[in-house]
Design brief:
By secondary structure, the chain is an all-alpha fold. It has six helices and no strands. 74% of the residues lie in helices and 0% in strands.
Length: 150
């Protein structure tokens, strides 16, 4: 007999639930802040290397386009597979992409540096969308449901 995931419930205390909410808010804030700082720093590096204003704003162009194109596939991915596996895989791919980006960026000169940057920004935007969606979908599993006194 197979056990459905909906049949498995974990009871946590209200204190543990409050602690999880605090951890979730803190990690989401730190992740968002560090991601924005990284994007801004990458934009400044591009501006310095290419001396082109478009290179500074390239992330502002890529992120929304990738977000729109990947909206449905990412939602289906999140609904189909376990959240922990998706988060781990997404972070691993992003880290490997960053390492590959860091080792290959100096192989390109001036405006040709946009090639690895655009590729990395696409991977980073997909990973960010996966992480945000997966994190939001998994949050309800970490805390107790609302308590209504009627």
């Amino acid at each position: 007999m197979a056990i459905k995931q909906s049949d498995l419930t974990i009871n946590i205390s209200n204190h543990q639930s409050s602690l999880q909410i605090f951890k979730a808010a803190a990690s989401n804030f730190i992740s968002s802040l560090s991601g924005k700082m990284f994007s801004f720093g990458l934009g400044l590096m591009l501006l310095d290397e290419t001396h082109s204003a478009i290179s500074f704003g390239i992330n502002m162009i890529i992120s929304p386009i990738v977000g729109l194109l990947c909206l449905v596939p990412i939602g289906n991915l999140i609904d189909t597979y376990p959240h922990k596996t998706i988060l781990t895989g997404s972070l691993t791919v992003r880290t490997l992409a960053l390492i590959l980006f860091a080792t290959s960026i100096n192989l390109f000169t001036t405006t040709a540096k946009l090639i690895p940057i655009v590729l990395f920004l696409i991977i980073d935007a997909i990973s960010t969308n996966i992480n945000d969606t997966c994190y939001s979908a998994a949050t309800h599993e970490l805390v107790n449901g609302p308590i209504f006194n009627a």
